[in-house]
Write a structure and sequence with these properties.
By secondary structure, the chain is an alpha/beta fold. It is 41% helix and 14% strand. The radius of gyration is 20 Å and the shape is globular. The structure holds (3S,4R)-3-hydroxy-2-oxopiperidin-4-yl beta-D-xylopyranoside (XIL).
Length: 377
């Protein structure tokens, strides 16, 4: 091995592992990369103590540096975080994440240019009066286009964008309505978002991202997403990939005390249809919600690792799966601590690392899935 190759091999071993704090072995990013997959995580810009605040925690930063080939701002690019009003853009928090990624030679992906759901629009936008008729339509379109253009131009390094997020209603599979779609039309609003993204980021991977899952109960959601993807293809809307959020373990009233009932066959049928239309796949927000599992830590960790391995094996079996993003890397910073807390009040164990920054069985499950995955280009 020449000097260059030796240095490259050494740099694939996480720094804390080299310092003896972690088991030696390649990082998740290196394991994924060997198979043509990019691995990374979401991260918040806030201070430790605020739930998504993790970038300012040095030990957390080290986990990200050690394991990740790509980072995504967890909230900082959403309209409600970025747009205090119709004119201003508050880039500072997202800029901090971008600077961190750049300093450590980690790629950046973007989430999201249009979370097309009134619940996640800023109040000023939900109350914005665009008026009616062609003038109202033109004004709504101008606002959407200028938002997307400005954000994309601010982050030319972002090469993978969740252009539209969660616009399918899981109850009936319909496209959600917002103040924008009420004047522009539902499909037209989404099409404009993707067309604008393509115009300003011609080389980026453009993604439709949603949480339809493999568990029972997601049937209408999956059907709605397929219909949406079909519509994009019919109209020539530039969409490259389906983002499968992969928040595993959704609560399932029919299977209490479990991580839900995976439907392997219908799930594969869903993925077959999406990939059959030419879409790539991304796992964009991986975590395991252990809300309904018994409190015992070993039981929870074993169950979490085993569902993670089964799920990732299935997903990585599709050569179209190109990126795998965890929605946070350390339990205490997981959004799931607040969202659906456990009845016994115990902290959740939803991510790959525990609160002492030690890898959990779920980290090893992800590593094993990458090791077993077929190579893709
Ligand atoms: C979540 C964040 O993790 C939380 O901090 C925030 O309060 C709400 O949003 N689907 C998505 C993500 O597309 O943007 C969500 O992130 C999690 C579910």
């Amino acid at each position: 091995m020449g000097l260059g190759a030796a240095a490259a091999a050494a740099s694939a071993v996480p720094a804390l592992a080299q310092a003896g704090e972690r088991p030696l072995g390649p990082s998740l990013s290196a394991l994924a990369k060997a198979k043509g997959v990019r691995f990374g995580s979401a991260v918040g810009a806030g201070k430790p103590g605020s739930l998504t605040g993790s970038l300012e925690d040095p030990r957390y930063r080290q986990v990200l540096i050690d394991e990740c080939g790509v980072l995504v701002p967890e909230n900082e690019l959403k309209w409600y975080a970025l747009r205090p009003d119709a004119k201003a853009f508050a880039f500072e928090r997202a800029d901090r994440i971008a600077a961190f990624a750049k300093a450590h030679d980690i790629a950046l992906r973007g989430h999201t240019l249009l979370w097309h759901h009134p619940k996640w629009f800023p109040a000023w936008l939900n109350h914005y009066d665009f008026g009616s008729g062609p003038a109202g339509k033109a004004e709504a379109q101008a606002m959407l286009v200028s938002h997307i253009a400005k954000v994309i131009k601010h982050y030319p390094q972002i090469d993978s964008w969740d252009v539209v997020n969660e616009t399918i209603d899981p109850q009936d599979g319909s496209i959600r309505r917002t103040v924008l779609s009420d004047v522009m039309g539902q499909e037209a609003t989404l099409d404009v978002a993707f067309q604008t993204a393509r115009a300003f980021a011609p080389k980026a991977r453009l993604v439709y991202n949603d949480y339809m899952g493999w568990e029972a109960g997601n049937e209408a959601h999956r059907a709605g997403v397929l219909k949406l993807l079909e519509g994009f293809r019919k109209r020539g809307t530039p969409v490259d990939a389906l983002g499968v959020q992969s928040h595993l373990g959704t609560e399932d009233p029919a299977a209490p005390g479990s991580l839900g009932r995976p439907q392997d066959k219908p799930w594969r049928a869903f993925l077959d249809e999406a990939t059959g239309m030419g879409y790539d796949l991304l796992i964009t927000e991986f975590d395991v919600n252990d809300r309904d599992l018994p409190g015992d830590v070993a039981t929870r960790d074993t169950a979490g690792a085993s569902v993670a391995k089964a799920y990732l094996d299935l997903m990585l079996d599709y050569r179209q799966t190109k990126e795998v993003l965890a929605w946070g890397m350390v339990d205490k910073y997981s959004w799931l601590q607040n969202f659906t807390p456990r009845k016994d009040g115990l902290p959740k164990r939803a991510t790959l690392y525990d609160d002492a920054y030690k890898p959990k069985p779920m980290r090893e499950a992800v590593a094993a899935a990458f090791r077993a995955a077929p190579v893709r280009t």
